[in-house]
Specification:
This protein is of the alpha+beta class. It has 3 domains: 57 residues, no CATH class; 221 residues, P-loop containing nucleotide triphosphate hydrolases (Rossmann fold, 3-Layer(aba) Sandwich), CATH 3.40.50; 65 residues, Alpha-Beta Plaits, CATH 3.30.70.100. 26% of the residues lie in helices and 29% in strands. The strands form 6 sheets. The chain has a 6-stranded mixed beta sheet, sandwiched between helices. Strands 7, 8, 9, 11 and 12 form a 5-stranded antiparallel beta sheet that branches. Strand 19 and strand 20 form a beta hairpin. Helix 3 crosses helix 4 and helix 4 packs across helix 5. The chain is elongated, with a radius of gyration of 27 Å.
């Protein structure tokens, strides 16, 4: 077996400054090539003297079986389960650092919530991921390809709704979608009207399809923008505040649609200022503040990382608060007959706390831990409220 050699700062077999390495194909049973951060690397398998494959930064290597009969050989990549990955991603505007050293990983098949207070850098990040603006520093890979250099390869596989849809007000919703579809070089014109009709149906706009877009409400425009993103099957759907302007029923319908898309294998990346919505629909989330990533991971784990609050229901709230304070419970809040507080880092046994309340003559009608929500985790991380549409 012949090993690829690439000169670089990391030494042989660890290329870091080259876009590609050339691997002698020879007549061996297999060749060894660096794996890219993509779903797969496809290389010509024929009778050529060499094959060329993209080189990944400090990637491990995989072994590619050589096939004399096949037209191509597909190389499984190490990070096939990652749809979006950034490393040290930064964007500076006239001295202001909008995004600072972002290291983000979005798992394939997830519904990923992107959260942060106003001005935290969420929309700037999304614009860099889509190749709308270039980063000042760092790298971004979407569907395994570098952005913005691989826009023409990546964007046909991505549906996006960023900062609201751009519509022709004098055209109907149906005709707007026809124009969007016609602009896609991969779209088959023979099935265009069927795709448009299906997209309108999925977002509940079939009855309003003939109405001019200028007569649409904000929520209807959001639906139409989402329909445009769904005209073709997508590997990745990027949604910036997708439920903005929708009534409660419309929000439920969009949440249901997002779940349906995820079940079909589409990865959904969405920003939202509605934390309860993120908890209901997202499997993973990331929290940003002041341009920096504070945390990321499964939603359940993010909430679990924040301590829940002890809640006591009693007709004697003043006495209960006094006893709980003596037992080390902090941040006490009293609301009618409900007393809640944060347990110390080294909490006492809950049974002992209950016994102390009873021994002090407190009539306990309810006692237990209240599970921390994503909102609690968000406030604990950022020190800010949850209206974070930024």
């Amino acid at each position: 077996m012949q090993q690829p050699q690439a000169a670089g700062p990391n030494g042989p077999n660890r290329p870091s400054t080259y876009d590609a390495v050339t691997v002698p194909a020879a007549d061996a049973d297999a060749v060894t090539v660096p794996a890219a951060d993509a779903d797969a690397v496809t290389v010509p398998a024929a009778d050529a003297d060499a094959v060329t494959v993209p080189a990944a930064d400090a990637a491990d290597v995989v072994t590619v079986p050589a096939a004399d009969a096949a037209d191509v050989v597909t190389v499984p990549a190490a990070d096939a389960d990652v749809v979006i990955e950034t490393r040290g991603l930064a964007k500076r505007y006239r001295g202001t650092l909008a995004v600072d050293g972002l290291d983000l990983r979005v798992p394939r098949g997830s519904v990923f919530g992107f959260l942060g207070p106003n001005g935290s850098g969420k929309t700037t990040t999304i614009r860099m991921l889509m190749g709308l603006i270039a980063p000042t520093a760092g790298t971004a890979r979407v569907l395994g390809r570098p952005m913005p250099s691989a826009q023409r390869t990546v964007l046909p596989k991505v549906g996006a709704l960023i900062e609201g849809p751009a519509l022709y007000g004098f055209l109907s919703g149906h005709d707007n979608l026809l124009r969007y579809d016609a602009a896609d070089p991969t779209a088959d014109p023979r099935t265009r009207r069927a795709r448009v009709g299906s997209a309108l149906d999925r977002v509940g706009l079939t009855a309003a399809g003939a109405k001019k877009a200028k007569a649409y409400s904000l929520g209807m425009k959001q639906r139409l923008g989402l329909a445009a993103a769904l005209l073709q099957p997508r590997e990745l759907l990027v949604l910036d505040e997708p439920t903005n302007g929708l009534d409660p029923q419309g929000m439920r319908e969009i949440r249901s649609l997002v779940r349906e898309l995820a079940a079909d294998g589409t990865t959904v990346f969405l920003s939202s200022h509605l934390l309860d919505e993120i908890e209901q629909v997202c499997t993973h989330a990331a929290v940003m503040a002041r341009g920096r990533l504070l945390t990321q991971g499964p939603v359940a784990e993010l909430a679990a990382g924040t301590r829940g609050r002890l809640v006591v229901t009693t007709p004697d709230p003043a006495d209960a608060a006094r006893v709980l304070k003596e037992q080390g419970v902090g941040a006490l809040l009293t609301d009618g007959q409900r007393v809640s507080g944060e347990l110390p880092a080294d909490p006492p046994d809950l049974a002992d706390l209950n016994a102390a309340l009873v021994a002090a003559g407190v009539r306990v009608r309810g006692f237990g831990l209240e599970r921390a929500s994503l909102e609690d985790a968000f406030v604990a991380l950022t020190g800010e409220g949850f209206d974070v549409a930024g």
